[in-house]
Amino acid sequence: MLILGVVLLWDSVVLWPVRVLIVMFHELGHATAAWLTGGTVVEIGLSPNEGGHTLTQGGSRPLILNAGYLGSLAFGMALLAAARASRVTRGVVTTLGLVLATITLGYVRPFLSFGFIYSAAAAVAIATIGLKTSADTCRFTLRFLGLTSVLYALFDIKSDVFRLDEVQTDATMLASETGVPALVWGTMWLALSAAALWRGRKRLF
Description:
The chain is globular, with a radius of gyration of 17 Å. The chain has a two-stranded antiparallel ribbon with strand order 1-2. Helix 3 (61-83) packs across helix 7 and helix 7 packs across helix 8. It is built from 9 helices and 2 strands. A hairpin with a 5-residue loop joins strand 1 (40-46) and strand 2. It has one domain (14-38, 61-161, 169-204). The longest helix has 27 residues, at 135-161. The protein has helices at residues 2-8, 16-36, 61-83, 89-107, 114-132, 135-161, 170-178, 182-199, 201-204; strands at residues 40-46, 52-57.
C-alpha cells in the first residue's frame, strides 16, 4: 500500500520535501565515496527544484560519480532493513537526524541558503521523530524514507539519462571521464536498482 501511494504521489507537491531530502542522500553518496577513496568534500548544495551538487577534491572520480544513484539506492535499502528491526528503529531515526545535522553544519553551503536551511530543518524534524515519537512512527518513517530513496534511483535515473537536452548529469560526466556513453552508465544503474528492488521486495517491504 505504501509503495502504491508513493508512486501515485511521486510528482505531487505533497512529496516535494521528501524528494529534496532524497537528493541530499544522493549527494551524501558522492561525499561518502570521496572520503572512502582518499578525497575531501568542499561543499554540498541543494536547490528547491530538486537539484544538488557535491564539490570534491581528490579521490576516485569514477567511483564518486557512480556513488550518487548507487549510494541513494544502498541507503534506501539499509533504511528498509532497519525498519524491520523494531528494537533499533528509534535509535536509527535519531542517529539519522544527528548525522544530517552534522553534515549540514560542516558541508552544506552557502550558509543561510535554501539548502542549508532546508537540511537543518529536516535534521531537527527527523531527530525529533526519533526522540519524541513511538517505535511504530519511527518504523514508518524509515520505511517511507527508504522506499522513496530506492524509487528515486529508478525515477531520477530515467529522467536524467534519457533526457534530450544538454544538462550535465552524473552519467554525462562519467562519459567524459571514461569514454563509456552516458546511456550505458544509466542503463547499468537502472538495472541494478530494479534488481535490488525486486530481490528485496518480500524481505524488505
